[in-house]
Amino acid sequence: MHPGTTVRQDCIEKNGLSVTDAARILGVDRQTLSNLLNARSGISPEMAVRLEKAFGTSAREWLLRQLDFELAEVMRRANKIKVEPFRVPTTESGENE
Predict the structure, then answer these.
(1) I need a labelling partner for 93 at 20 to 30 A (CA). Which of 34, 54, 79, 83 fits?
(2) What's the rounded Cα separation, in Å, for the pair 46 and 85?
(3) How many domains does the chain have?
(4) pLDDT tens across 5-44, in order?
């Protein structure tokens, strides 16, 4: 789940706030918050600090949620990422130089 969904549920809806009110509380413009809530942007370190200051959940927790989301997105297409495993070259005698 995109972390913007969690922000919507746990910070905005839980506290009966409008997006406009939440944006004002966070000190960002409404469009910035809307982009996050609608999964068009992620939680930046600065936004994580703003969320921590406003709603109490640690900035680290917000960033971990963002990282987990991004990693899950990449892992869904990991089989399409073509990279050859690195192998340490060996000498003819079988020893590394």
Answers:
(1) 83
(2) 36
(3) 1
(4) 999 999 999 999 999 999 999 999 999 999 999 999 999 9
